[in-house]
């Protein structure tokens, strides 16, 4: 924290030395339709980067002419102008709001605003309208609509890069406003921390991104970006209720005549007060689940403050509090009538309190260099009735510097990172642990002419963890474990023609095992999980060749995207079944080297059929995930449920499509997902040692349900004035399916949502 205070003080003092410009002129940058001034628009004038103030004004020195002006603003099309003299300058410059996916802007892949078509990696963008349309009450629910993305019992999997790891370790980095939000001790995403009622967009980057974002970005990034206040105040309310209907097999309905439901209420208010922006949001959710002992009550409050001292210096402060009380079970009683009831001894009750404090500063110096100081403090207190309680205090700090060399068409981004954690956890031997993560990174983005863009970057990351010297029979010299790694990436994007872009990328990834993976010691049902302090880090690489073909012809505007990818991992960490004297259960182990290759075809855009506007988003993903040392490792062959070289908990085929049409004041949407059968799981679930019998009926159930599943959802909304009423029916075909063993997913359910926009 002392380092953060020193950096904040330095930037604040530096801001007082800004020289005021003389002989200035001003123009307004505004929205083309509403003519409302836009605040915070980035305007590049020659080699200078300027920002519009709280009233949408851009201040210029008369001596800048002649000059090229490039205006960028998230949610709006980039505009370029060249004016010879001040006499050519208009009183107002108008920006047009993005209407097609061809104009979407992303920041995740490069840490600066960039048209998605020019990105050197695969990125999908989701807008908040879709979240409201499908009544997503958790951030993870909407991600299942993204091609190649699967949320498996809360853990994110992009293009098969992750399997199921029992709540420990993630190869996908979760960001909230560009700052990591994974719980550091376990590396687990807490989706309920994300204020989805106030999002501008969700950006999903596929492939290794460790050079810019660190250890947990080995497989990709999911970045949730908050929206900001506009010139006019905005207030939204929403309430919704979902009722879970009977499962297809009535014998599994344990709740008889009672009601299983989920209720949700949320609000967001955004307003400007002179130089200060205030955003306040909140949510309350109550779940009485279709699975027995799967209930939850949670409330979340969020506040974001942004203060512009001037057009050079901006302060931000965010705060979030999340409280929940919930329970769940790990294994069903049996695959028949007890599939939605709990096996005795596998139910856990949890109470959680989580707090975020996010201060940040953005400063543009007199040379138009951008300095950013990002910070996040996370306090976690999870109480559990099964001796799995934990407390942690986590601190993240990052200083980022960015300079644009206009004449050279070069952007330099560099920074340093420091993160620290203190963890007290019952599942870690009821002992206090400390961890530190330190990194420095540099990336260069260079444009040649108007068509070719190259990107390259390096990162050095150092991790240390402090623990007892003796832990459950293992000796850790000095109680210290540390590792450092230098990784790199390179990528290119070439504009073949109008709306046609070819990209190629190669990136290395690195992930040090979390404290939970190294020291977890707990039980669930008949199984135990054993610590492995001797785990090695994972190291890998990911490459991609992709073609994005945009269309703005006839009634279709959008793009088709084709990507071929391959990823390899060394010392991949998986929870592996161990059967030794005195030890029966799972232990995280380095299972060897793996390869995941495949391809993805996707489409996103807007069409017009007989005058009816239609939004389309979806795609097909194929993966071939294998163990490279399958033939030479009896341990691997004995750990998988089928005698086939396929990584555990992966579906080789996924097809997803969401289509929404608007007629008059009505919107009708249909969503379909087709997911192939998971070939391999842990063999111990189907043949429980030492007797090797199907004790829980998991093998029997999987043999009978071995064709994957198809989900069909539909929604219909009506908007009148300030009110939108949406009806939804999900899993229309009432398909029974599981994503992970012994946990049935939602049967057919019907919902009603009401949104009210006050102003």
List descriptors.
759 residues, mainly beta, Immunoglobulin-like, Maltoporin, Chain A, 22-stranded antiparallel beta barrel, five-stranded mixed sheet, 8 helices, 7% helix, globular
- What do the pLDDT scores average to? 87
Number of domains: 2
CATH architecture of the largest domain: Beta Barrel
Structural class comes to mainly beta
Helix % is under 10%
Uncertain segments are: 5-22
Corresponding CATH superfamily of the largest domain:
TonB-dependent receptor, beta-barrel domain
CATH class of the largest domain: Mainly Beta
Tally of helical segments? 8
Backbone shape:
globular
The Rg value, from CA coordinates, equals: 26 Å
List how many beta strands DSSP finds. 44
Question: What is CATH's topology name of the largest domain?
Answer: Maltoporin, Chain A
Q: Please state roughly what percent of the residues sit in beta strands, choosing from under 5%, 5-15%, 15-25%, 25-35%, 35-45% or over 45%.
A: over 45%
Query: How far is it from the N-terminal to the C-terminal residue, by CA?
Result: 40 Å
| Major β-sheet annotation | 22 strands, antiparallel, barrel
Give a written overview of the molecule.
This protein has 759 residues and is mainly beta. It folds into 2 domains: 2-97, Immunoglobulin-like (Sandwich); 103-274 and 287-757, Beta Barrel (Maltoporin, Chain A). The chain is 7% helix and 54% strand. The protein contains 8 helices and 44 strands. The protein starts with a helix and ends with a strand.
Sequence-ordered SSE layout with sheet pairings:
Layout: H1 2-15, E1 24-31, E2 42-45, E3 48-51, E4 57-61, E5 67-72, E6 79-83, E7 92-95, E8 105-106, E9 114-115, E10 122-126, H2 128-133, H3 139-143, E11 149-152, E12 155-158, E13 172-176, E14 179-180, E15 199-206, H4 210-213, E16 220-226, E17 234-244, E18 261-273, E19 276-288, E20 295-308, E21 313-329, E22 347-364, E23 370-384, E24 390-405, E25 410-425, E26 431-448, E27 452-466, E28 470-471, E29 474-475, E30 480-497, E31 500-511, H5 515-519, E32 522-524, E33 527-529, E34 538-553, E35 556-570, E36 573-580, E37 583-590, E38 594-609, E39 612-627, H6 634-639, E40 653-663, E41 666-675, H7 683-686, H8 698-704, E42 709-720, E43 723-730, E44 749-757
Parallel strand pairs: 1-7, 13-16, 33-37
Antiparallel strand pairs: 1-4, 2-3, 2-5, 5-6, 8-9, 10-15, 11-12, 13-14, 15-16, 17-18, 17-44, 18-19, 19-20, 20-21, 21-22, 22-23, 23-24, 24-25, 25-26, 26-27, 27-30, 28-29, 30-31, 31-34, 32-33, 34-35, 35-38, 36-37, 38-39, 39-40, 40-41, 41-42, 42-43, 43-44
